[in-house]
Every structure is written in structure tokens, then in C-alpha cells.
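Re: weekly structure request thread

Next one in the queue (418 aa):
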Amino acid sequence: MRRRLLALLCVTGSLLSACGMLPGGHERKTVTVWLMKDSASKDFLRRFTEDFEHTHQDLRLDIRIQEWTGIVAKVRDALKKDTGDGPDVIEVGNTQVPLYADGGRLADLTLESMRDWGKDTWLPGLAQPGKDGNKQYGIPWYAANRVVIYRKDLFGRAGITRAPKTRDEWLADTGKLDSAGNQGIYLAGQDWYTLSGFIWDEGGDLARQKDLEWRGTLDSPAALRGMDFYRRLQALGDGPVDADEEHPPQAGVFAGGKVAQIVAVPGLAQAIVRQNPALKDKLGFFPVPGPTAGRPGTVFTGGSDLVVPQNTGDQFAATAVVGALTGAKWDTELARAMNYVPNKTTLAGAVDGEEGVAAMAAGAAHGRATPNTPQWADVEADNPIKEYMTRVLDGADPATEARRASRKITEALTPDVG
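Done, posted below.
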């Protein structure tokens, strides 16, 4: 009798939600989604959830916010479970995808990417790290990358009437700005993300794979040309050669009022203005210039991909969530709400109204990511690129130091099979 009474109660309107049932007796399946803290606002998540559950009436979303600290170990543990009660969709940093794809723990989403999700227009800096061979595991969600934040008033005083379009113009303008007690640019000596862009523009790489083995390639002629440009630009300011952009935080240095430019994500402008409100209407943005005026420079693209664990309890439901979050409607909504770059080059027009984000989108169209190997994290753990940069900026022979750093990168990228 108790079972009959419970069954009767569960189909009444007042207890529909509690019993997880839909009219007609069909159970509503729950899709568990792990998203990272501050990736999306509460208002965005509320609106997305309402829309998704309205259009997918057999599914319910359980969105759980995660902290970045300790997330790698937590995701790896979730991927190893065999019970199917872990997350069905996970947001991961774009360069983290190789860590999780290693060992076959992620669902292959190649078919959906080609058939339904328009992979040909994805930002390369998000799409490439999500790929292993011919298989697509990480689905691009949003991007962010560096631009040049500059002082409009200092540019005006120097007679510079438009943002530089080429590297040569950028050097010339920065030389004019590096006077009268001002730094033409504040560029820390170990800002290796910015260096990476210059190397890529020259046709070089941090490392390359050949015959299934990864090797450091800072000693290639192209990579050395990228380092030489970095050296010439960095000399037009007083950035420390033995520290990165966070030591000291470059927002505080810029806020001091004696710096004409920095290379940073546009959102750093808010921190600058908080520290120096007098700069509120004096800041502008332009894409990092490239070798020619035809396109902006290549930049390191950060951001997030969405992945589906192989052990999900319902891959069909999980891919429905991924498709909705990364589709044009909600990806555009997220970009506008959070000042991100949308995941496709065809959606860049959605952020044209924001100067900083528009500059970011122009660069993201030609963005890159770090080498697509799980061992790259070992390189960054004791980063030989930083030491290489400091040595060169201190006057050491670039070719000699590049060979030394390349050997260390190769060692870090060689898996320990012992």
C-alpha cells in the first residue's frame, strides 16, 4: 500500500520536481556539469539552465562550481571512476586537455564537432590543444589573450595619431614614447607568453614533435629571430630582466603613471584604474602588431574547453549540454556578459562594441597554444624559457643559451618510462 501511495503522490503536480518525474511517467535525467569559479556569472548560468531545461524536458542540469586550485587531481580522480556517478561535462583549461585525454579517459567528440558544431571556424588556440591526432576531445568554449594596453594621452603628446599595425611601426613608436621620464613599454624580462607570439610569427616553435618525440626548438633560426625582437622591444623600458609580469604586478607599475604601454589581457585595465582613477579615460587597446599590416601578431590564447568523460552515465545527454553551451546563442551571450572572445572567428562581431575585447578577438583569430603534449606541464614547472630570456637580456650569446634551454625542454618532454 505504501508503494502505491508513493507512486500516486509522485505524479501529482505538487511533487513533480521532488520525484524527478515528467508528465507521462518518464524520469528526468540529471546531467552533472563542473564549471570553474568565475567563468560565468550567476545570472548567465540561471538563464542558460532555464532555457536548456525548457528545450530538453527530459534533462535536468546540476551545475557545480569548482576551484582552480587542486582541480587537476580532482578531475583525474573523477575520470578514473567506473561508477558513472561523476561529472558528465567538465570545463578545463584549453592547455590542460592533453593531460586528461592521455590514457583514453575522455569521450571522442570528433563526429559531433564535424557534423553539428562547425569546427572549421573554431579559434585555433582553443581547438588545437583539444585534439589528439585526428580525434577531438576538447570543445572550445571561450578565449582570452593579450593585447597592448596604452596611454592615449602619452601617445598624443608623442605625435602618434594611430595604433601601430606592424612590428617596425611598434618599435618606432615605442622609441618615441621612451623619453621625458616615461617608459616606452613595460615588458618584464621573463614574459615568455609574449615571447611565444613573436617566435610563432617568425615561423618558429617552443618545441616540435618528430617521429613521436618532442624536442625543444628555441635554437632554430626562426625562434632566435623572435627572441631578438623581444630583446629590442624590452629595451625600450625598464622592465626587470630577471622577473615575469607578476613580479611586481605590472598593473601597479602601469598605474604609477610613467609607462606608455604594457602587454596584458584587457581586463587588467580595471585593476589599473582602481589603483589610479586619473587614468580612467586615458586607456586604449590595440592588438599586438604582426610582421606585416595584413594581420595582427600571433598570441598565446588562453581560455577553456568543455570535455565529456568516457565514464559518463549518458554521453548523449552530456553532448547536448556541450552543444548548447558552445553554440552560437549561448557562446555569444557568455562573451558579452564576461568580456570574453567567442569560440568561433565568425562570432567576433558580437564583441565589436568593447574596444579591449575587440582587440583581443582580432588577435585570437591567429592565436596559438603551448605544445600539445601532457608533458608540457613539466616544462612549466621549472621553466627553462624564463632563464633563457634573462640570460639573453643580460648579454649572453642567444644561440648558446637557446641550445641550453632547448635541451632542458627536450628532457622535460621525454616521458619517464623507467
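The two ends are 64 Å apart (CA to CA). The longest helix spans residues 398-413.
Next request, please.
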